[in-house]
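Entry type: protein chain
Record version: 2
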Amino acid sequence: MKCSVCGGDLTQFGSKTIRNGMVCRYCAKKASPWLSDDDYKTRDTKDIIRHLKYREDNQKMVDAFITEKIIEGKYSLYLNKDKGEFVISKRKDYKKDNADVFRYKDIKGISILKQKDETGNFNLLVDFELKNREIPEACFRVNEFPGIEEGSKEYEDTLAKAYEYLNGFDEEDGFYFVEV
């Protein structure tokens, strides 16, 4: 079987299943890191080709992005209020992180999610719901290590960090927040 996008060979690791075939790890590596395996499964070859074109255009935005404010953490949030753009990245150098530049106007909502794990402890996540055809959601875990005990100092510190991400956006930017 060959890659549905480029026709290249598939490898055991890194290839992704889509509705009408497979995507090789090289094409998948060019895609947004916010695409989950489930996102791939809902897309077909035409969708992936469109997404990779979006990523080429996005790279120009990444190259031109100027950071005005940084909120550092497990993931860092880079803000440019003047242009109404932001980047979420695991790396200090987001330009090497295959990052996406998102627009403020594409934010439908931002939430803090509390996710209970199998041990009864919690993970705190910040979830950006987006009006973006290619990436409808960007959700990341705030706590450094999985499973923190509710009410512990680590939990409270992590919750404070989650609010710091949210507070990077002002009411004047037109956002309201929901803690779940």
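Comment: The chain has a mean pLDDT of 91.
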